[in-house]
Write a structure and sequence with these properties.
Number of strands of chain A: 30
Strand order of the largest sheet of chain A: 11-12-9-19-16-17-18
Number of helices of chain B: 5
Number of helices of chain A: 21
Strand content of chain A: 15-25%
Distance between the termini of chain A: 69 Å
Helix content of chain A: 25-40%
Largest sheet of chain B: 5 strands, mixed
Oligomer: heterodimer
Structural class of chain A: alpha+beta
Order of helices and strands of chain B: EEHEEEHHHH
Shape of chain B: globular
Number of strands of chain B: 5
Largest sheet of chain A: 7 strands, mixed
Shape of chain A: globular
Strand order of the largest sheet of chain B: 2-1-5-3-4
Radius of gyration of chain B: 15 Å
Strand content of chain B: 5-15%
Chain lengths: ~775, ~150
């Protein structure tokens, strides 16, 4: 049943403030209808909008209903729900801001309330894949427009004038003919009785009338709380009678506890109990690893107790995982043919007939997320009901997994989403919340499970390790006529199903098979690679090794042909066109190709923009060098220029970074800039230091001393960000992740320009000092 | 019984004297503005001011601060309007915000010691505080702004 055809009354806007307490089921029951408001298909027809997104295909799709997302109180306060998780991108501000814009609410009178995990009610909440603005710009505008129209209709009725004569302007509805005005608060009760306008045919604001969107003048809603210590993260949740737990987990993925001696732990002041935590065999998606928990009156005592435990483990089948040996296996696999995942022309023959073949084997080790807030969760399980407070990227998924793990109905699980102290993909896996739920159930009390930094580094769902081998065949004129790219990397699918050895379509689609260069003979291959630890999403995912390899190879081709990097890059991108790779089931970040094609005109544009603004080709001092790279990811286009300085001892500094991004229509350019500035830091961190290695199945690193990240004294002196102005109706695209991939290759191309050394193995480490 | 003044209020503790100040603040005193990031004084998320010095609460025991004055982010300014806090908001520094209390306390301690630090001095003084989101450019600019008048 389509609600559009069935206008009806619902509960009042005032009640809507407490909408989170009202279950979907009871609302529907009260109305005597069987359908829902969930629009599983794309939200509107092509006539209504210039583009479609993949939002409707996400689990639980999109909900466009002002009664779910907006409430107006009699005092005029407008409450807007944020249903996506805030981990630093600004989404908790940006999405409600879109609603406020469209409904003509005054932002200073808007309160943002975080939605709990309930995808039936709110639509998809899985905050990853750089999707929030891309999928919700239009739905949030529609929600705001619907609320505005309901307020306008209420005012028109009150005054007995046609609705066409009234207009909402900055938190009031105005009848200009008579000069009458009514505030949103005065209209709230009546507006709630109005029927919700049909989504199709909703008239959205003319962008030239925008007060907030695209302006970048609104600070994030949590800014004051963050600067005063009041902002509440997962780690900050405290409940009466809450116990603190720290867990010893198997040091090897898939390992098991043989025996433990709790005596020394129990002698630590403040420790109350030692108990086993259920573990699941590997792989089991996000289920806990198991181990031994120390329960205490505070976290300090729990940590001290945990460290005093005497534990014996059976390491199991992964106990031989060794990063040095495995790298050799990956390299060998990359030198032999593998599963062909894209084929155009005849790359074998063209490589054989080439005048020159350039070969690059690029290595990227495992990476850990190390968000500043390590995993942490609070659970309160009472009987067959569970309440969770956690910094999770996927509150809906967490709810589902908690229900399954405890064997209770999903409707009995409440997931409260706190602020996330960083996420980067780690917190889309809810293992820490499941641990808290299991412990709370057994203890019969609320429990906080705090991961230490060591736990975080040693038991992460790591970025995969990969060897990317590229062979580029050149003709006599230096033109690239053949391209063979073999990607060998354990797949994320291995975390979900034992024995998965080929990369999934979504991994292949991140810079391997969607490679945009205009080359006649292309072969992309994916030889097998087994996983020996938990592999997961890390900000930008497979785009990191792919952009590193492909864009480094561009630098190598430029060097081999004695040409400028930027000109070589543009020549490879070729003519402005829509690239349609010969790939079965091409994955395009879940988006339709029509709205989000691989558009080389846009790719060229960001290269040209960054070259112009970033003064490509400017003279630099001795020991300095410039490098450039471009990459399309999360359906956005990003180009970066890095300037490096390498002194005679091999010490690297980064005086300047310039980045141009084309992310289509955007909401908050100020937050886009902050994301890109941060992506440069994350890119520099992984390029310079990022490495998790295994020996005897165990992670060799433990904390920020041996898994280093960039600090302020080695950060780029300046990072400039340029945003391509969107064309009319250019669909919005990703921002959170796309900044990372081009950084490492731009850096390595710059290092080559400065020193003549080509770095093919990450991290850089001490390679310049040798 | 250990007595310590936190944000002007006397607090006492009769448990483990080795308990890190961080966990006393967060779990016993309920002052959760000070964050745990590493437990080894490597990241600075737990930075508080003891008397006039920035210290890492994760490796400072409650006993170490007996009889001393501890200031946390909650006590830096009654309305949250310390020049560093104001500058932070003006420059829109935070992304996720988790490390920011530690950054702000470190910056406040720096300005007590050196009211007009150079950019190099700012980078040196702030180098013990990690921000994984990478807000460093804005941190540097905000400390500079706080030192020149907000």
């Amino acid at each position: 049943m389509n609600f559009i055809d069935n206008p009806r009354k619902l509960h009042s806007f005032e009640k809507n403030i407490r909408v989170e307490k009202v279950s979907r089921r009871s609302i529907l029951k009260g109305l005597g209808i069987t359908g829902g408001f969930v629009l599983a298909a794309p939200v509107m027809s092509r006539q209504a909008l210039a583009y479609e997104t993949g939002a409707g295909k996400m689990p639980h799709g999109v909900v466009v209903d002002p009664r779910v997302f907006v409430a107006v109180a009699p005092d005029g306060t407008v409450t807007i729900l944020a249903h996506r998780s805030e981990m630093g991108t600004g989404v908790r501000t940006s999405l409600p801001l879109i609603v406020a814009e469209e409904m003509e609410a005054d932002w200073s009178r808007v309160k943002v309330q975080q939605a709990h995990g309930d995808e039936v009610k709110f639509g998809n909440q899985d905050t990853d894949g750089s999707r929030s603005t891309r999928h919700y710009l239009i739905p949030m505008r529609q929600i705001g427009a619907s609320a505005r129209i309901m307020l306008e209709q209420a005012a028109a009725k009150r005054w007995g004038v046609p609705a066409t004569e009234v207009k909402a302007v900055n938190h009031e509805v105005v009848h200009s003919a008579s000069g009458r005005k009514l505030g949103f608060g005065e209209l709230a009760a009546d507006a709630a009785k109005e029927s919700v306008p049909a989504v199709e045919g909703l008239k959205l604001k003319d962008p030239k009338d925008f007060r907030y969107l695209g302006k970048g003048q609104v600070g994030i809603v949590d800014l004051h709380d963050i600067t005063t210590g009041k902002a509440r993260y997962g780690a900050d949740v405290r409940l009466p009678g809450m116990k603190y737990a720290v867990i010893a987990r198997p040091p090897v993925t898939g390992g098991k506890l043989v025996k433990f001696d709790p005596d020394a732990a129990l002698k630590v002041p403040g420790v109350e109990k030692v108990m086993q935590v259920r573990g699941w065999p590997w792989p089991s998606k996000f289920q806990p690893l198991g181990g031994v928990a120390v329960i205490a009156r505070n976290t300090g005592a729990a940590i001290k107790g945990r460290d005093a435990l005497k534990l014996t483990w059976d390491d199991g089948a992964n106990g031989k995982y060794d990063s040095v040996a495995y790298r050799k296996e990956l390299e060998e696999a990359s030198r032999k043919p593998g599963l062909v995942v894209r084929q155009e022309g005849d790359a074998d023959a063209a490589l054989k007939g080439a005048d020159k073949v350039i070969v690059g084997e690029y290595y990227l080790p495992h990476l850990a997320h190390v968000s500043m807030e390590p995993p942490v969760a609070v659970a309160d399980v009472k009987g067959d009901k569970a309440e969770i407070w956690a910094p999770v990227q996927s509150p809906g998924g967490t709810r589902e997994d908690v229900a399954k793990t405890l064997g209770i109905p999903e409707g009995n699980v409440t997931v409260n989403v706190t602020l996330l102290g960083g996420g980067f993909g780690r917190k889309s896996k809810c293992d820490f919340a499941l641990e808290a739920a299991l412990l709370s159930k057994e203890l019969g009390a609320p429990v906080k499970v705090q991961w230490t930094r060591e736990d975080d580094v040693r038991h992460d769902f790591l970025h995969t390790v990969s060897v990317e081998r590229i062979e580029a065949g050149l003709d006599k004129s230096g033109k690239v006529i053949a391209w063979r790219h073999r990607s060998v990397a354990p797949t994320i699918a291995s975390t979900f199903a034992a024995g998965a050895k080929h990369e999934a379509a979504f991994e292949l689609g991140m810079g391997l098979v969607d490679m945009p260069f205009e080359i006649a003979n292309i072969s992309c291959e994916n030889p097998e690679a087994a996983a020996f630890t938990r592999i997961g999403w890390f900000r930008s995912v497979s785009n990191i090794p792919r952009a590193f390899a492909v864009q480094s190879m561009v630098g190598e081709i430029a060097a081999a042909t004695g040409r400028d990097q930027k000109e070589t890059l543009l020549a490879l991108i070729g003519t402005p066109r829509i690239v349609k790779p010969a790939v079965k089931d091409m994955w395009n970040y879940g988006e339709p190709q029509d709205s989000y094609p691989i558009d080389t005109a846009r790719l060229r544009k960001v290269v040209e923009l960054v070259a112009e603004k970033g003064e490509w080709g400017r003279p630099v001092a001795k020991g300095h060098g410039l490098g450039i790279a471009v990459h399309r990811s999360f359906v956005s286009y990003i180009a970066t220029i890095v300037e490096v300085a390498v002194d005679d001892k091999g010490k690297l500094t980064v005086p300047r970074v310039d980045t141009a991004i084309d992310c289509g229509t955007y909401v908050n350019p100020e937050r886009i800039a902050s994301q890109i500035e941060g992506a440069a830091i994350m890119g520099l961190s992984l390029a310079k230091y990022g490495e998790i290695s295994f020996k005897d199945g165990k992670v060799e690193q433990k904390n920020f001393d041996d898994f280093q990240v960039i600090r302020i004294d080695e950060s780029p002196a300046v990072t400039n960000v340029y945003i391509v102005p969107p064309g009319p109706d250019t669909p919005p695209s990703g921002v959170g992740e796309p900044g990372v991939p081009p950084f490492a290759p731009a850096l390595m191309n710059a290092i080559f320009a400065a020193t003549g050394k080509r770095i093919r193995s990450l991290p850089l480490g001490k390679q310049l000092e040798a | 019984m250990i007595k310590v003044k936190i944000n002007g209020q006397e607090q006492s503790w009769d448990g483990d004297p080795d308990l890190p100040l961080l966990w006393f603040l967060r779990d016993e005193a309920g002052l959760t503005g000070t964050k745990y990031g590493c437990g080894q004084a490597l990241c600075g998320a737990c930075t508080v001011i003891v008397d006039k010095e920035a210290v890492r609460a994760c490796i400072t025991s409650i006993n170490d601060v007996a009889g001393r004055e501890v200031t946390t982010i909650e006590g830096l300014h009654p309305n949250g309007d310390h020049p560093v806090q104001k500058a932070w908001r003006q420059v829109n520094v935070p992304q996720c915000g988790f490390c920011q209390a530690g950054q702000i306390m470190q910056a406040a301690a720096l300005l007590m010691d050196n009211p007009k630090p150079s950019h190099d001095q700012i980078r040196e003084a702030m180098s013990g505080n990690i921000c994984r989101c990478g807000c460093y450019q804005r941190i540097e600019n905000a400390v500079h702004l706080a030192s020149t008048g907000v």
